[in-house]
Amino acid sequence: MSSESAPAITTLWVRLNVASLDEAKTSLAAREGSAIASIGWWSQAGSSEHPGAARIGQWAAARGFAGVVWTALQPKFGQKYRTPTSEEVVRHLAGLEGPARHAAEEYVRFAPRQIATPFRSAIERALGWTATGLI
Q: Can you give the residue range of the structural domain that contains 61?
């Protein structure tokens, strides 16, 4: 499923104190430990070809932003680049043990509550990992 067909969800954002769009891309890539190619971007002059760029560009333009960057990683499940089903995600998480399970549960619980995805709903129903993070 591309982000163009994914349900819209609340997303948190922050202004970057940078001088250019290129600096913003480099800064975000370094923060995320990813390649520049995994950074989506939009400016009034154009945009990357990542799914969701048009939707994000409309949002940014309506707020008067000159440019926007975001992490645009491909979905990956196991060794394949694909979007898993909610059932696959729950099954994977339920099968974790020890430190790996603890780390996964902590990650899910501390994600901001506003990030209400279908995956999160399925995880909460099946595993009871409810949000304890930011309001």
A: 1-74
